[in-house]
Design brief:
Layout lengths: L9 E7 L7 H11 L4 E7 L5 H10 L4 E4 L13 E2 L1 H6 L4 E5 L2 E5 L2 H12 L8 E5 L3 H12 L4 E6 L2 H12 L7 E5 L2 H10 L2 E4 L25 E4 L8 H8 L3 E3 L2 H16 L5 H11 L1
Parallel strand pairs: 1-2, 1-3, 4-6, 7-8, 7-10, 8-9, 10-11, 11-12
Antiparallel strand pairs: 3-5, 5-6
Helix pairs in contact: 4-5, 4-9, 9-10
The structure holds 2'-monophosphoadenosine-5'-diphosphate.
The site of 2'-monophosphoadenosine-5'-diphosphate has 19 residues, from helix 5.
Length: 288
């Protein structure tokens, strides 16, 4: 298959800090080729000092839209003209659409996470307890998704406690019945809460290439066989966190299905084309 770029080609892409290992460019360009669309998806490696100019540049260069990834999902919001309601509540965007010069922010991570957990993880969220590691932009989307689906209780652990408190404060106001408690990333509380939970999710960047020897859990004895252990990271496909979980007899899921489902939603927002997820998941599993 060959890609023809011409004067009418619409540009989409991804903005992030360490995106050399992102699968999104490969994934979106494969879809573009397969469906003979006149689009091209590009990686934009951006430093924090250039974030403002970069987002203004989306309008200036008439770029159709972008994905926003680590670590700009929260920071990007203030530069947008409009933010869709759930993204505003979450306080993080992973997708921007340029609608004739108006930049609109969305969060397709919510639908991507829910679908992956329910369909690939075969996990019924309602009435369960979950431990979330991390309190960045990705964690916000995960907590929001779990609350929407009626999770019973959430325990958030983060190195910076203040950030976890902020999530609790922001999201509790939209879900008055929610039960959220927050802790620093330390072993004693982790042990107690992980024992109570059936779902343990890593939303931190620990374990992501090139830092593949890192894991957010201080001790692998904290895993147990009654857990579904979910790592939002997809590269490497099996992080140290997931390898240890598997050794302890837990069921595991990585970030690949979520990447595909959130990508399909973003692609729809830019192109109007709704794609079949099964076929794309198979393609991406081959190239990942
Ligand atoms: P994203 O948008 O992908 O969620 P982020 O908002 O930068 O990215 O969040 C990254 C998460 O990884 C945070 O929870 C961060 O912890 P802090 O809030 O304390 O910064 C966590 N994280 C990153 N490096 C870490 C490390 N070395 N140890 C513990 N947590 C780390």
């Amino acid at each position: 298959m060959k890609k023809n770029i011409n004067g009418k080609t619409k540009i989409i892409g991804i903005i992030g800090k360490n995106i050399e290992n992102s699968l999104s460019p490969l994934f979106h360009n494969q879809i573009i080729l397969k469906h003979s669309l006149n689009f091209c998806y590009l990686p934009f490696q951006v430093t924090e000092t250039n974030l403002t100019k970069t987002i203004q540049g989306i309008k200036a260069l008439n770029i159709r839209g972008v994905n926003i990834t680590f670590p700009y999902k929260e920071k990007a919001i203030k530069f947008l003209d409009e933010v869709e309601e759930s993204a505003r509540r979450i306080g993080a965007v992973n997708t921007i659409v340029n609608n004739k010069g108006i930049l609109i922010g969305y969060n397709t991570d919510v639908i991507g996470f829910k679908k992956s957990l329910q369909e690939d993880g075969k996990f019924a969220i309602k009435g369960e307890k979950a431990v979330i590691l991390g309190a960045g932009g990705a964690a916000r989307a995960v907590v929001y998704a779990l609350l929407e689906e009626g999770i019973e209780e959430i325990f958030i652990f983060n190195r910076t406690l203040e950030k976890a408190k902020k999530i609790k404060q922001n999201l509790s106001s939209f879900f008055p019945k929610s039960r959220i408690s927050v802790f620093p990333l330390e072993e004693e509380d982790l042990k107690d809460k992980i024992e109570k939970a059936h779902l343990l999710i890593n939303t931190t960047s620990l374990g992501m290439a090139p830092q593949i020897d890192n894991t957010p859990l201080p001790d692998e004895k904290l895993f147990h066989p009654n857990l579904l252990v979910y790592d939002l990271i997809y590269r490497p496909a099996k992080t140290l966190f997931l390898r240890q979980a598997e050794r302890a007899g837990a069921k595991i899921i990585n970030g690949l299905p979520m990447l595909v489902y959130q990508g399909i939603e973003s692609f729809y927002l830019w192109t109007g084309l709704k794609l079949e997820s099964k076929e794309i998941l198979e393609t991406i599993e081959r190239i990942a």
